[in-house]
Amino acid sequence: MSREFEISEVKNRLAADMQSLHSNHRTALERALIDPRIVGVNDRPQGFVVAVAVLDGKLLYWSDIEEGWELEAPDNRGNIASRGCNQFELRHVLYRALGDPNAA
To answer: What 3-state class would DSSP assign to 66?
Structure first.
């Protein structure tokens, strides 16, 4: 699979997953979006993920191996140390990162 195809697939997944977000989380995520980019994974020399946003200094990315969203701080080269091993839905990652969207 080409990296361009991978980015396209993640963009489509993100757009679909954003539809299920609480409006407060959707707004916060829209402000944090970046041009989707390939990010290397240090413990997998040929591995990569697609980052789509930066939230509080951490990259929001899709892991095709775990088939879930994750949040990880990049190193000084812009890579992440390892892929998360969770299979979080986007709304779960944002709840953990941003808190309860209904809180005043």
So the answer is: coil
Q: Which amino acid is at 22?
A: H
Record the tokens describing residue 39, joined without a space.
């990010």
Give dist(CA 57, CA 54) in Å, integer.
6
Q: Cα 4 vs. chain centroid, distance in angstroms?
A: 17
Q: Could you read off the pLDDT of 31-46 as tens digits, one per residue?
A: 999 999 999 999 888 8
Q: Which two tokens stand for residue 42?
A: 């240090």
Would you say the pTM of this structure is higher than 0.85?
Answer: yes
Structure tokens at 78: 């812009």
Give the span between the Cα atoms of 23 and 28, in whole angstroms.
Answer: 9
> One-letter amino acid identity for 24?
N
The pLDDT tens digits of the residues spanning 3-17 come to 888 899 999 999 999
- E strands present in the chain: 33-41, 44-55, 58-63, 68-72
Burial class (CB in 10 A: 0-12, 13-18, 19+), 13: middle
